[in-house]
Amino acid sequence: MTEPDLEERNAESLLTFHPAFEAAFQAARKSLREGGIPTGAALARGDVVIASGHNELVQHGDPIAHGDMVALRTFGRQRTHRDMALYTTLAPCAMCSGAIIQFKIPKIVVGEAETFPGELDLLRSRGVEVVVLDDPRCIQMMRAFQREHAGLWAENIAEDIDE
């Protein structure tokens, strides 16, 4: 491994244990314990977690309440989002990516994009810095959930499922 590769991998390892990423991961686990979709998100300024949330489709019957959207709603009204980062366990869908773009959040740290690729190219095309961690905890949690709750997952991402 070359030195720049090692430095990049060490930087990504530190992001995995960033307080906001851990808040997002714990929010996802909370949703799973409640019988919901295991995705979570957190907003941070530097190392300070400002708000977090998890998907609330099951808990509140709200198809728009993805983790990213709930974190933004929890954060509430702000003059600017340009000095923060969004940490999320799963690559954001088109709806959540639109909110990230709308509020001009400059950076997003994604736990994983393997089980759902989301709209990372759209975010990058709009100038958002995207870091994908490939966090094994997030991948494992989503793989198990998608396998065990295929219909609920399809509902969450507005896809039809073959039955």
General description of the model:
The protein has eight helices and five strands; from the N terminus they run H-H-E-E-H-H-E-H-E-H-E-H-H. The relative contact order is 0.15. The chain has helices at about 5-15, 20-35, 55-60, 65-75, 95-100, 120-125, 135-150, 150-155; strands at about 40-45, 50-55, 85-90, 105-110, 130. It is globular and about 40 Å long. The protein is α/β, with parallel strands linked by helices.
SSE diagram, text form:
Blueprint: H1 3-16, H2 19-33, E1 40-45, E2 48-54, H3 57-60, H4 67-75, E3 85-90, H5 94-102, E4 107-112, H6 120-125, E5 129-132, H7 136-148, H8 150-156
Parallel strand pairs: 3-4, 4-5
Antiparallel strand pairs: 1-2, 1-3
Helix pairs in contact: 7-8
Strand order across the biggest sheet?
A: 2-1-3-4-5
Hey, roughly how much beta strand do the residues contain? Answer: 15-25%
Query: What is the total tally of β strands?
Result: 5
Shape: globular
What's the helix count?
A: 8
Summarize the structure.
This protein is of the alpha/beta class.
